[in-house]
């Protein structure tokens, strides 16, 4: 059971199927355009969407809003230094600001950064500095179905080759993303991290952690890496930070706050140069774009996030939803991580080719069916087409991410998601693909407009996708909000 009870509640939007259908048309089938009061269960992201604890709210009230040298900063600094061991801590308004400050200071045009997988803002900030971001995920990451516990690892052999290769002189930084968000939320083992750190040290290249989900990574290490069984998540986390030269942190994830982040560094000279940029663009170094109360809430959140009971219940929630997903006949990236499930939409919807965006088609249907908001991670996000809509590049997999906000939804909410997944899978062959009607030149998924395509009339009423266990073939469960709406082909928006 969840190791907390609820003291403050917020109403959840209840909408009819007809309202959701109209909302989809209004936002041109882009779920980023929905208003929060049109969404029943919001699984768009786990970033900044968690619930605060009573202790965090108390810390919020004791926030000291002095411009310089606030007590809040001292408490924040003490908490972050105790966790990371880094003497130089620069607060920033969120993770990508830490990326910008560090990369603008450390990188020169033409440099290369290496990573297990760069997160998208991390890659963008590397490229904005005229540099190249290269991902070196381990080979196990390519098999979505295998149960390998550490698919977030970097490929150590390729890292060693790169650090000793002809381009070695251009490699300025190695970034280890914990957990590997771009790689399905998979964890990195301590063995892998320490090998990578050894190689970097021998090559004289700094290594930093992109530590947004350091506690979830540490939890998975205590579960699956034999040498760390019996260690506490906090011990593992401290050891991970100790292996690196610094960290980039988005506190909106494992800080369990709504905004904030920091840059942690060992090197005094690098920290001094970063601080100069911080003052010019984020704020004075004792607040860095945050309010005193934010710093206090981060300090408290960092203490709570490594509590084993909390992490256990987070793992339980993700495993519960993973079981419901599999029972619905939908496969997901295995093993399920803690912050999100990645559903294999390409496999569920074999009648929709990549450039008609099966992940997005599934996202729209989950919203129509049950008011669930999720996000595509497939060819809408990563692909490219020519002016006639013919594919140039497609994503390696067509996935849909169901992110799990921290301490926000209960088991009942997840059961609702499971019911919607089961109903959706029953009629998967009636889900249409989409075409783009208008798109911005960059980061298109945020503002792209789409329209559903007609389903081919010869479509068999029997789905030809993954066979489902008989037990999962349950009759459609009617929610109160959709009781009067029979499933009809008009669902496809045609
Ligand atoms: C969210 C995230 C970031 C960026 O942090 P923001 O707070 O959203 O700016 C960087 N890296 C990883 C791994 C993330 O998950």
TrEMBL record:
Keywords: Lyase, Pyridoxal phosphate
Coiled-coil blocks: none
Cofactor: pyridoxal 5'-phosphate
Pfam families associated with the record: Beta_elim_lyase
The keyword Lyase is assigned to this record: yes
Region listing for Disordered, in residue ranges: 453-494
Bias (Low complexity): 466-483
Domain Aromatic amino acid beta-eliminating lyase/threonine aldolase: 42-417
Top-level taxonomic group: Bacteria
Keyword set includes Nuclease: no
Family: Belongs to the beta-eliminating lyase family.
NCBIfam families given in the database record: PRK13238.1
Protein name: Tryptophanase
């Amino acid at each position: 059971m969840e190791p907390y009870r609820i003291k403050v509640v917020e109403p959840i939007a209840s909408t009819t199927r007809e309202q959701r259908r109209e909302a989809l048309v209004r936002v041109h089938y882009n779920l980023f355009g929905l208003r929060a009061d049109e969404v029943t269960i919001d699984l768009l992201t786990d970033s900044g969407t968690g619930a605060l604890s009573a202790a965090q709210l108390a810390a919020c009230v004791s926030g000291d809003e002095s411009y310089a040298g606030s007590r809040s900063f001292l408490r924040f600094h003490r908490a972050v230094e105790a966790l990371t061991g880094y003497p130089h801590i620069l607060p920033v308004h969120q993770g990508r600001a830490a990326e910008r400050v560090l990369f603008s200071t450390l990188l020169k045009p033409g440099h290369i950064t290496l990573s297990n997988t760069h997160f998208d803002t991390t890659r963008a900030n590397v490229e904005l500095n005229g540099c190249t971001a290269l991902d070196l995920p381990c080979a196990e990451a390519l098999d979505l179905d295998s149960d390998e516990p550490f698919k977030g690892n970097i490929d150590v052999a390729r890292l060693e080759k790169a650090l000793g290769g002809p381009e070695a002189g251009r490699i300025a930084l190695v970034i280890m993303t914990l957990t590997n968000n771009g790689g399905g939320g998979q964890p990195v083992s301590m063995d892998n991290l320490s090998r990578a750190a050894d190689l970097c040290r021998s090559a004289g290249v700094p290594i930093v952690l992109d530590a947004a989900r350091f506690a979830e990574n540490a939890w998975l290490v205590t579960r699956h890496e034999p040498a760390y069984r019996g260690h506490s998540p906090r011990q593992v986390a401290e050891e991970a930070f100790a292996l690196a030269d610094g960290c980039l942190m988005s506190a909106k994830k494992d800080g369990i706050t709504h905004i904030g982040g920091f840059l942690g560094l060992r090197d005094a000279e690098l920290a001094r140069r970063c601080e100069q940029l911080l003052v010019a663009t984020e704020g004075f170094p004792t607040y860095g774009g945050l309010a005193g109360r934010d710093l206090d809430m981060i300090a408290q959140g960092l203490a709570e996030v490594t509590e084993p009971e909390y992490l256990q219940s987070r793992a339980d929630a993700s495993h519960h939803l993973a079981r419901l997903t599999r029972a619905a006949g939908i496969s997901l990236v295995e093993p399920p991580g803690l912050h999100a499930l990645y559903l294999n939409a390409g496999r569920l919807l074999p009648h929709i080719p990549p450039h008609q965006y099966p992940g997005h088609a599934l996202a729209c249907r989950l919203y129509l069916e049950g008011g669930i908001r999720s996000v595509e991670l497939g060819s809408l996000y990563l692909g490219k087409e020519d002016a006639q809509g013919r594919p140039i590049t497609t994503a390696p997999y067509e996935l849909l991410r169901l992110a799990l906000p921290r301490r926000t939804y209960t088991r009942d909410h997840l059961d609702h998601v499971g019911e919607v997944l089961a109903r959706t899978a029953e009629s998967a062959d009636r889900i249409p693909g989409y075409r783009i009607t208008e798109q911005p030149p960059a980061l298109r998924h945020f503002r792209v407009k789409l329209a559903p395509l007609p389903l081919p009339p010869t479509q068999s009423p029997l789905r030809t996708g993954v066979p489902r266990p008989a037990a999962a073939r349950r009759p459609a469960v009617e929610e109160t909000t959709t009781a009067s709406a029979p499933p009809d082909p008009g669902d496809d928006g045609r």
